[in-house]
Amino acid sequence: MLSLFVIPGHDRRLIPEGRLSGPMPWVIAIMIFLTVLATAMGLAFAEAGQKVSDQLSSRATVQIIEANPVSKAQQAKDAAARLRGMELVDEVRVLPPEEIEELIAPWLGQTGSAQGGSQAGSLLEDIPLPALIDLKLVRAAGARELEALRGAIGPLAPSALIEPSSGLIAPVIALVRSLQWIAFGLVILLAMATAAAVIISARAALNTHKETIGVIHLLGGTDRQISRLFQRRIALDALLGGILGLICGAGIILLLGMQLSALGSGLVQSLELSWYSWLIIGFVPILGMILAMVTARMTVMGALKKIL
Fold it and tell me: Which residues fall within 8 angstroms of residue 114, CB to CB, at 6 or more apart?
């Protein structure tokens, strides 16, 4: 690859280099810009899904469904005490009734003071809400762990239900994974479009310099030497356009990142790029240049064989 950039100056003048004056660098810049955005989106969704899965895989929720409030409170107290004594459980937190009411209020509506005091009571008086216990386990909540928890609190709270927290957000995780693969699919499509643009540019350059190629052949030049000239020109165009596209794409990513951070949502804030994701994004222009070089070489060598 290094030999591509050490072609003597008199040979380079055979195929003039347009720098940023021609359309090719700008086409590559647009393709790399879109590829950077798609890559960043795919990596962000991948990291967000992994973070949420890791955070929720070791958490579980205990629901104690009991109509009698006194019996429900006692069962929740006994179950929490039993859970705190288990080596499997790292943290135990009994949610207060007010917090449970706040969690369910957006679906059932507020009463009492939320409506100007015209109605008495609260959601806890209107419907029998379950007691909730939030658990953080020392390891992922698998089938064996859930069965151990059920066996421990079953005699104390017969109506208790234990659900892993990961199951509650499984549809969201599935959506994030789908968006991740859609983004990576866009990267592949953009790579194919970039290769197609390089093929068109290489063929156009061959037609433009057809007479020059004939003279080089008469002077003993080989197809490999001719292809190196076109490779170098297209590689430089791809590198210049790729750097420009990377700068614009990185600017858009940073701007969107600041706006997403201001929203304050846990899932949205998890859409952050780590240092190794930025490293992958930084390699996009280099990969684009390599793709352009390989595509240009194959196109030129194939066309030269047909000419001869």
Answer: 105
Which helix (H) or strand (E) element contains residue 94? Answer: strand 89-94
pTM of the complete model = 0.71
Give pLDDT tens digits for 275-288: 888 999 999 999 99
**How many C-beta neighbours within 10 Å does residue 203 have?**
14
Structure tokens at 20: 């940023």
Backbone torsions φ then ψ of 164, nearest 5 degrees: -70, 140
Angle at 228 between CA 224 and CA 234, to 5 degrees: 140
Q: Given strand 160-164, what is the order of strands in its sheet?
A: 89-94, 131-137, 59-64, 160-164
Q: Cβ of 50: how many Cβ atoms within 10 Å?
A: 14
Q: Residue 227 in contact with residue 303, Cβ under 8 Å?
A: no
Residue type, 97: P
Q: Which of 26, 16, 31 is nearest to 237 (CA)?
A: 26
Query: What SS3 state is found at 130?
Result: coil
Query: Letter for the amino acid at 80?
Result: A
Domain boundaries, the chain: 2-54+170-305, 66-158
Angstrom distance (rounded) from CA 226 to CA 221: 7
The CA distance from 223 to 303, in Å, is: 10
- Give the position of tokens 């939320």: 114
**pLDDT per position as a tens digit, 224-254:** 777 787 888 888 888 999 999 999 999 998 8
Alpha helices by DSSP H, 18-95:
23-57, 69-84
